[in-house]
Amino acid sequence: MPITWNEEKKLFNVTTKNATYQMKVDSYNHLIHTYYGSQIDDTDMYTQISFADRGFSANPYEAGKMDRTYSLDVLPQEYSCYGTGDFRITGLRVKESTGNQTVALKYVKHAFFDGFHKINGLPSVHGTSPSTSLCITMKDDVNGLVVELWYGILEETDVITRTVKLINRGNAQLIIEKAASMNLDFTYGEFDWITLHGRHAMERNVERRAISHGISSIGSVRGTSSHHYNPFTILCEKETTETNGSCYGFSFMYSGEFLIEVEKDQMAQTRMIMGIHPDNFSWILDPDQTLELPMVIMSYSANGLGKLSQNYHKTIKENVIRGNWKNKRRPVLINNWEATYFDFTGDKLVEIAKEAQSLGIELFVLDDGWFGKRDDDNSGLGDWYPNEKKLGCTLKELGNRIVEQNILFGLWLEPEAINEDSDLYRAHPDWVIKAPGRMPALGRNQLLLDFSRDDVCDYIIEVISQLLTEVPISYIKWDMNRSMCDKFSNNLDAAHQGEFAHRFILGLYHVLETLTTRFPDVLFEGCSGGGGRYDCGMLYYTPQIWLSDNTDAINRLSIQYGSSLGYPVATMGAHVSAIPNHQTGRSTSLSTRGTVAMAGTFGYELDVTKLTEEEKVEVKKQIKTFQKYYDLIQNGVYYRLTSADDICTVWEIVAENKSEALISAVYHGVEANPIPIYVKIQGLDEKKQYEISYLNADCTKQIMSGIALKNAGINIKGATTEFESYQIYIREI
Ligand code: GLA
């Protein structure tokens, strides 16, 4: 049984294929977190908690008189509260009308439900397989706050989902100052913490550090999940590698401001807290009102980081992404941004689309600059009607001209943004996010629309619906190009301003939910200046996200490597662009640019009309290769064989049935008399024989056994020029 309750022991056991998560209601009705790790049975792990009088660690009143060894300051708790003797980072802080912020939760009851728990207005994990959800109800008897802790599981991928619902069952208003979606306590273990940090055009660099005494945190106060810290993180044991050791993943299914805190306490215990960032947050709950918090997707691997990533890849592909495009083959696209930027005519676009189609490209995406007065990035945002002077025709006519080339038509939008120099701003200056009496900070010379307002959301839904109804559009790139500041809504009174940043995200999700439901055949690709909102929240609505504005093949190796820790290649927008690269000035071969972009949704972002005949032949070949191995690349099991910092970055995608694999190897440099690079190939059948062939280099085919590939490995052909890359195909014979 995946989730059980033992009445006698007062023990919850949540079991997935390889893991157990255990909680206990103790004699004071506190919910204690007793274990998370490799599978055990329902042995009560509470018995292993050491109780001693920890000086200066407070004792709850009911325990204190009799038992000084009982302290919430050191006990592992399922959901920690502020002010009642736990001096560590805590998950819940609530202000009462008196100003008091102390809150204490006790177990009341629990119930099991069939199926996956759905959160109103927020994304959540879903599935078709039968599943059970657990809801544990906790209550503060003094102020009447009820807290429901919800758990769900995906057995195969060792996933446990968590979310929290707050209900004010008291008689007075409560202000929620901090409400985490997850609190996780470990009573022992020396952990490393792996985080993904970055910046615009250089997202998701991997950092691994030891958790030491004190508090560390990452998060975002930018209105989005951000380029700067990703809401996916890993705790792992010190010795954990790609293939060995225990690790725990945490993915916050939310696209707004978040905080992840880690603390090692006086007893060398580790606590992690994940939730909406409390800095800009304070939510008023009047009696009987409810607040539902975003979901956390936890997973566990006892076999290293590689397996943990695979758990997330599968979960995201099967249980996060929804809709018609979940399993549908995604088109190879061409985007005109790096080909033309703002400088194009309708004829030029048709020319690119025509040439692209002749090369085998299936979708033409018209990026920024097609609307309003938009000849650079200083004006026009908000005016989602075509610049007919520039296009030489209506958008519908342009769409038809493109589609007549036998290629699909896609469109760029930045619906949350507005320029002051736009008709929309002139008509609705009150719709923008702006602090009263102050000039707003600009980002890319633009402002943001107040998506916490229903009228703004309704307007955007109608404008986009009209475009999607009138123009033959198969794809939308949903961009968002600045961080949010001057956070204030004209629509909220002073007391409710602390709800603004979260209400913005609720508005965004409402708009996306409406549009994706209304237009299920349209493929939505997320984007926020590349990967500034690359999270499981957005992936619920947009099955692929433009991974980075950086299209340099070598920089992409580390961006894709870091992203692969928590996200599958099937979600990573990746394009071949021109050289010298527009972001770095680096030149790499077309072959290498193709190899790297094929670890993603694959497309092109250059002026194909300027390609030489030789390059056109190569592009055609790349597209055929990608299409031939599409199922393997998008649905196979992904392994990182070397790191992004090694001289040769190597990754592998293996078919689930072990019949074939594609190895990609990219050299960062070249040396005279090169040292051979060996990699051990994972995931194949040890007992079978395989044929190994290079797809983009002359090399004699070789035959090797699965066991030799696994334990001895292959020697990758050496680089003869800088940034050389190889695609090596292995198939069962
Ligand atoms: C963002 C996107 C780019 C492009 C530009 C257009 O930076 O990430 O891909 O669409 O906007 O302005």
Structural notes for this entry:
The chain has 733 residues and is of the alpha+beta class. The longest helix has 19 residues, at 500-518. It is globular, with a radius of gyration of 27 Å.
Write the SSE topology:
Layout: E1 3-6, E2 11-15, E3 19-25, E4 31-38, H1 61-64, E5 92-95, E6 106-114, E7 132-139, E8 145-154, E9 159-168, E10 174-186, E11 191-199, E12 202-210, E13 214-220, E14 232-237, E15 247-252, E16 258-264, E17 270-276, E18 283-285, E19 290-292, E20 296-301, H2 304-320, E21 333-335, H3 337-340, H4 346-359, E22 363-366, H5 388-391, H6 395-403, E23 408-413, E24 417-418, H7 423-427, E25 447-448, H8 454-470, E26 475-478, H9 500-518, E27 523-526, H10 536-539, E28 544-546, H11 553-564, E29 572-573, E30 575-577, H12 590-597, E31 603-605, H13 613-628, H14 630-635, E32 637-640, E33 648-654, E34 660-667, E35 677-679, E36 689-694, E37 702-705, H15 706-711, E38 714-716, E39 725-732
Parallel strand pairs: 21-22, 21-31, 22-23, 23-26, 26-27, 27-28, 28-29, 30-31
Antiparallel strand pairs: 1-2, 2-3, 3-4, 5-10, 6-7, 7-8, 8-9, 9-19, 9-20, 10-17, 10-18, 11-12, 11-14, 13-16, 14-15, 15-20, 16-17, 24-25, 32-33, 33-34, 34-39, 35-38, 36-37, 36-39
Helix pairs in contact: 8-9, 11-12
The structure holds alpha-D-galactopyranose.
